Amino acid sequence: MPGSEAEQRPAPTRLVGWLLLACVLAGWSAGVRAFDHGAWDALLGRHVAWVSDGTASRVDYAGFQPDLKNLDAYLAALSNVPQQEFDTWNRAQRLAFLINAYNAFTVRLVLTRYPDLDSIKDLGSVFSSPWRRRFFTLLGERRHLDDIEHGLIRRPGVYDEPRIHFALVCASIGCPALRNEAFVADRLDQQMEDSLVRFLSDRSRNRYDPDTGTLAVSRLFDWYEEDFTHGHHGFKSVGDLLTRYAHLLAGQGPDRDRIRRGQAAIRYLDYDWRLNDLSTP
Q1: Tens digit of pLDDT for each residue in 208-265?
Q2: Dihedral sign, Cα of residue 43, residue 90, residue 102, residue 228
Q3: How far apart are alpha carbons 142 and 120 in whole angstroms?
Q4: Is residue 215 situated within a structural domain?
Q5: Whole-structure pTM over 0.70, yes or no?
Q6: What is the rounded distance in angstroms from the CA atom of residue 133 to the CA atom of residue 142?
Q7: Is residue 1 domain-resident?
Q8: CA pair distance 218, 200, nearest whole angstrom
Q9: Cα–Cα distance measured from residue 212 to residue 266, given in angstroms and rounded to the nearest whole number
Q10: Number of domains, the chain
Q11: Domain hosting residue 61, numbered range
């Protein structure tokens, strides 16, 4: 009969279809599944060691060599991600992917000549830069390391995250520490902040001289000064960043207060391009 209870109930097959659709939509709204960096995380855990009270790290490149198959499998998985899939991820997932890709491909570049090099710069020449060697594919294009850093990560209006300079590692002692874990989306902010704190806490790269009232800091702040001047993450200048983290640069007392008031002159240290190898003194 029209309008009967039986007619008003959906057919079993229709009900199952609606349930399946609801599950799919629920899964989509919960977020697209991002790339799994577990393989890179395991490699870093085996072959990266914290030194200098955790403010720096060294890479066991010799230990990486027997693990090349695992590293190459991870890099191949990175290369297989199409742009269309990458675009479905959220900001943290995309940024973690690019940071890990930069660091992993950098390690692989070093291993193409290891142990017959003292610096990553040995992989370049007067006319070519190691950071502009197109030796890998990412997001459907043949790329070099500068593509990832400057073309994808530092591109204005995309991520606008100055702390990436404490996460990207150029295989040199002067660089921030390569972490012994992969960057992951759900802890990305915490990991980048921790990398910044460790870097500023390293007295070989950032230190205050009370005799001259001068802050001697990494040349990284000179090279990328522009990235710290736009107010992103609250930084209005390199000096502003240093005043905010004065407690890492000097002990309690007048020295710290001088830094906080912006009264310390800033000079930039020479960059140490020696390989960040476990065997490097």
Answers
A1: 999 999 999 999 999 999 999 999 999 999 999 999 999 999 988 899 999 999 999 9
A2: negative
A3: 21
A4: no
A5: yes
A6: 10
A7: no
A8: 9
A9: 11
A10: 1
A11: 38-203
Q: Please give the backbone phi and psi of residue 101, each rounded to the nearest 5 degrees, phi first.
A: -65, -45
CA–CA distance from 37 to each of 43, 61, 167, 246 (Å)?
A: 10, 20, 16, 34
Task: Indicate left, alpha or beta for 213 from its phi (over 0: left) and psi (-120 to 50: alpha).
Answer: left
Strand partners, 142: 137
DSSP secondary structure string, 70-138?
HHHHHHHHHHT--HHHHTTS-HHHHHHHHHHHHHHHHHHHHHTTTTS-SSGGGGS-SS--GGG---EEE
Distance CA 95, CA 100 (A): 9
Residue that is written with structure tokens 């097959």 in the block: 13
Q: Is residue 2 part of a domain?
A: no
256 domain residue, yes or no: no
How far is residue 253 from each of residues 208, 257, 259, 261, 272, measured CA to CA in Å?
13, 6, 10, 13, 31
* Cis before 115 (ω within 30): yes
CB neighbour class for 206 (10 Å; exposed up to 12, middle 13-18, buried from 19) = buried
Cβ(217)–Cβ(266) under 8 Å?
A: yes
